[in-house]
Specification:
- The complex is a heterodimer of chains A (158) and B (384).
- Chain A starts with 9 loop residues before the first helix and ends in a 33-residue tail after the last strand.
- Chain A has 1 helix and 9 strands.
- In chain A, strand 4 and strand 5 form a beta hairpin.
- Chain A has 2 domains: 45 residues, no CATH class; 71 residues, Beta Barrel (OB fold (Dihydrolipoamide Acetyltransferase, E2P)).
- Chain B has 384 residues and is of the alpha/beta class.
- Chain B contains 14 helices and 11 strands.
- Chain B has 2 domains: 136 residues, Peroxisomal Thiolase, Chain A, domain 1 (3-Layer(aba) Sandwich); 208 residues, Thiolase/Chalcone synthase (Peroxisomal Thiolase, Chain A, domain 1, 3-Layer(aba) Sandwich), CATH 3.40.47.
- In chain B, a hairpin with a 2-residue loop joins strand 5 and strand 6.
- In chain B, the strands form 2 sheets. Chain B has a 9-stranded mixed sheet, sandwiched between helices. Chain B has a two-stranded antiparallel ribbon with strand order 5-6.
- In chain B, helix 1 crosses helix 2.
- Classes of the chains: A mainly beta (158), B alpha/beta (384).
- Chains A and B meet through helix 1, strand 4, strand 5 and strand 6 of A and helix 5, helix 6 and strand 5 of B.
């Protein structure tokens, strides 16, 4: 059966979980495939048999970047592969943005958000010594010029 | 006969609009119209001959209507497919079908952008995504940066390899009078430029300039009687893999691995038959990924392929001879200009940067965040 969207939306339910400090995802019960982002029907099959689950919140950094916004400290964005088998965008907090490495084990924590932004999941590193995880993509922080802006080239747009 | 027939349509006119920085209050449709009339002049057709319009732009929501109104023409066939920078390759594939099956005779594909004049934020506002926007990715840059970081981790690609792509583009640009960038660039300069989204410095990112252009297509039969040597469409292939970077299945493999084989199959060609490539280089990782996915080197070897001037003038493969989106022109969506360079190479019009004996050129478009991939193979009369 195709679920109704009159009373609940996929994002609405997801955000309710976030408010409770939970990272929620869906599983298609036809074949046990994890689904993220939340949807009204399962991708691939179109099945309406989607069940909500709460993730244990453990995952691995799939890839990462460090952004240099003008007048701000370097900011991490990463793709996290959750152990339940889905991937999401997030960031790893509490360590230097350049020390977030591919393959690093991480655990979810709910960012409280603010007036405009509802709570959203971020991650913290579980690796006691992140310097042990030097992937080939490891950065040499000393090579970096001071961060001073964003946007693409020459355009002056943020 | 089912499907598209290789060589049944041809590009007969091709022109850039003014590029770089245009006058204040120029509109994107001004640039489309300018490009359209230059492209018609290029082949000797008149505006009244045009019966099909294909338009996509970030600043004009309903492109075919806007351009038809401006030019006061009434096309009987039109398409406003918007899949980002590769929209124009997609338009060409759809125009191929429409012309081949008699739905129209003369098709114009046009584009215009004033993103340098009005700012990128104004020209290409982004949709809010509740699963991405809270993390403030600098899009599209950070998406491509994460693809590059994964490629580096998985295959040993280095920042120097990325810089090689920027330097090769600059060397080609210095041979193109139309190119925005006029000064040489070294690997060290590229590496030490301002960091934007690691591993990308500004030199890993495309230009933000105004520009546009148009191409004119018609049947191979009609093409013979026109002013310029026809450039035949030998193969087209389109593919989509995702819309948002979070949903890209494997950050090191693009849907060019699907669009490329489709185009080669239709053309009856293989990568070794291609004399020149025009690859959508919004970022330095793009040509590396596309060389792999289109079959010009094994997966993971793209970085080493471009090393030591591999795709620079005099290198082992002529790639982005215009100077590319990195050093020639990147007006928001760059796919139309990607094709124009390939068309001019097959015509033999490229002056100092002309690839000798260029009979087959590949133009590859990319859109979104490595989301849409469209490949076109152009050929001279000798390839029919």
């Amino acid at each position: 059966m195709i679920p109704s969207l009159k009373d609940n939306s996929p994002l609405g339910i997801y955000l309710e979980h976030c408010k409770k400090g939970e990272l929620a995802y869906q599983v298609c019960t036809d074949d046990n495939t994890p689904v993220f982002y939340p949807r009204a029907v399962a991708p691939g099959s179109g099945s309406g048999n989607l069940e909500w689950r709460v993730s244990k919140g453990l995952g691995t950094v799939y890839t990462t970047t460090v952004m240099y916004y003008k007048g701000e400290p370097p900011l991490n964005v990463a793709m996290i592969d959750l152990d339940e088998g889905f991937r999401m965008m997030s960031r790893v907090e509490d360590i230097d943005a350049m020390q977030v490495k591919i393959g690093m084990r991480v655990k979810v924590r709910m960012h409280p958000g603010d007036d405009k932004q509802p709570p959203y999941p971020v991650f913290t590193s579980l690796s006691p010594d992140s310097s042990a995880l030097t992937g080939r993509g490891a950065a040499d922080v000393s090579l970096l010029p001071p961060g001073e802006g964003s946007g693409m080239r020459e355009g002056g747009a943020k | 006969m089912s499907g598209l027939q290789r060589g049944s349509i041809a590009v007969v006119g091709a022109a850039e609009s003014d590029l770089g920085q245009v006058a204040p209050n120029t509109s994107p449709v001004d640039l489309m119209a300018q490009g359209t009339m230059r492209a018609l002049d290029d082949c000797g057709l008149k505006l009244s001959d045009v019966d099909a319009l294909f338009v996509a732009a970030t600043q004009v929501r309903m492109g075919p209507m806007a351009l038809a109104e401006y030019l006061r023409i009434k096309p009987k066939y039109f398409d406003g497919t918007q899949i980002g920078g590769s929209s124009f390759m997609s338009h060409l594939a759809h125009a191929h079908a429409a012309i081949q099956f008699g739905l129209c005779e003369v098709a114009v594909i046009a584009y215009g952008s004033t993103q340098r004049s009005v700012s990128r934020a104004a020209a290409s506002p982004r949709e809010y995504n509740p699963y991405e926007s809270p993390y403030r990715p600098i899009l599209p840059i950070s998406a491509y940066a994460m693809a590059a970081a994964r490629h580096m981790h998985q295959y040993g690609t280095t920042r120097e390899h990325l810089a090689e792509v920027a330097v090769a583009a600059r060397k080609w640009a210095l041979l193109n009078p139309q190119a925005w960038e006029k000064e040489p660039l070294t690997i060290a300069q590229a590496l030490n430029a301002r960091m934007v989204s690691y591993p990308f410095t500004v030199r890993d990112c495309c230009l933000v300039v105004d520009g546009g252009g148009a191409i004119v297509l018609t049947s191979a039969a009609r093409a013979k009687s026109l002013r310029k040597k026809p450039v035949y469409v030998l193969g087209v292939g389109e593919a989509l893999s995702h819309a948002n970077i979070s949903s890209m299945p494997d950050f090191t493999v693009t849907a060019a691995a699907e669009s490329g084989p489709r185009a080669f199959k239709m053309a009856g060609l293989k990568p070794a038959d291609v004399n020149m490539l025009s690859l959508y280089d919004a970022f330095t990782i793009n040509p590396i990924l596309f060389l792999e996915d289109l079959g010009f080197c094994p997966k993971g070897e793209g970085g080493r392929f471009v090393a030591n001037g591999g795709i620079a003038p005099g290198g082992k493969l002529a790639v982005n001879t215009s100077g590319g989106g990195l050093s020639y022109c990147h007006p928001g969506m760059y796919g139309l200009l990607v094709m124009i360079e390939a068309i001019r190479q097959v015509r033999g019009e490229c002056g100092e940067r002309q690839v000798k004996g260029c009979e087959v050129a590949l133009a590859h478009g990319n859109g979104g965040v490595l989301s849409s991939q469209c490949t076109v193979l152009f050929g001279s009369r000798a390839t029919l």
